[in-house]
Specification:
73 residues; 2 domains; rod-shaped
Length: 73
């Protein structure tokens, strides 16, 4: 009887460990799903794109100024 109890407790412990890894591994995808539903993901992408566009505009402005400086010389 004690051998069966040991196997049951080992099985329950292993099941608990695997379940806990599964739950913690899925947390990130749960956050992504919530962000999709609430629209926060779209807002984050908008702000990131806005920053990227500002960087591109700044680079083009610098290139344009360099071209104008070369033409003046």
């Amino acid at each position: 009887m004690s051998k069966i109890r040991n196997w049951r407790s080992l099985f329950i412990i292993m099941l608990t460990v695997f379940f806990s890894f599964g739950v913690t591994g899925g947390c990130d995808s749960g956050k992504k799903a919530i962000d999709d539903v609430t629209g926060n993901r779209a807002v984050k992408q908008y702000h990131k794109s806005k920053k990227d566009i500002e960087k591109i505009v700044d680079k083009h402005a610098e290139r344009y100024e360099d071209i104008l400086d070369e033409d003046e010389e």
